[in-house]
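<goal> How does this chain fold?
<body> The protein record starts here
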Amino acid sequence: MELYLDSANMQEIEEAFKLGFLTGLTTTPTFMHREGIRDIDATIIKLSKMVPILQIEALGETADEIVKEAERLIGLGLDKEKTVFKIPVSLEGVKACKRLTDQGYKVNVHLVYTLQQAYMAMAAGATYVCPLVGRLQDQGHDALALVEQCVKAVNYYGYPSKIMFSSVRHPEHVRNAINIGVHTCTVPWKVMKMLTENNFTTLGTQQFFEHTKLMTMCVKDVIKPYNPVVRLDQSVLDATIQMTESGFGAVTVVNDKGEIVGIFTDGDLRRRLRENGKDILQKRMNEFEWRKPLTIEAGALLHEAVELLRQKSVDNLVVTDQGKLVGMLDVQDLLQLNIFV
């Protein structure tokens, strides 16, 4: 199934065709009007150089006017092999379609809402026959049945026409198009971007990234350069300032030799404030009893760090290099990497 972008937005067009496999672009005067485009001819020439195949309108009230407009557009420098002229279905439209296709031009007969209209387009040799699904559904009609009938007619009678599924409103429409077996589908960029999305895929991909990081990254690759530390002779207020400035939920407590004696957390702060009030802020670290904190070597894999955090139900690990304090690993550091503890 051919896949076209349906747009006149230059930014969308540039982004979409980076995919590298779109068949071409369909656009309309209405799209260009919405984008504030004033010089349609210049825009058409610009688009023709950006996309593999360009489908543009050839408007006229009579077959002569339609053919003349198509020839005028080719005269601007468009490639006959890479341009498809869109013509609204009508008696004059299918007459123009026949004349143009006999001359080797490609034609899309669109604004098709009935099988009879589609048949006239096929009989006139239209390269594409284009029912508008979304618009027809808006009126309460079974648009999918119409598209299926068009596909069956092409296949049964052997017409060279391709049925184009258009007026796509959501990803389900693309699934419908595939199931029906249409030959081509033109899709707005906002819908096209959703075609690869699925929550299970997102979760699975995140898990792959998470597990790769756990097995390949070390603790030293994650910890911040700022190392929040307080000495035993400093106060709870000093520790609070350190936590606030560093963004950590804890600080490492060291003695005058720089040896690790404990860890003071924001949980400790809240608990002591509840028990002793704000006077606790003036107490020194050496007035408390300390337990050796959980440590991990800087060269350890993140997998080991996560397992330790989970087993001990803590949010922080003191990081050492051969026993020497080098920093702190906070659970928030891991969350920023989409690693969940």
User: Anything to note?
Assistant: The radius of gyration is 34 Å. The first helix runs from residue 10 to 16. The first strand starts at residue 2 and ends at 6.
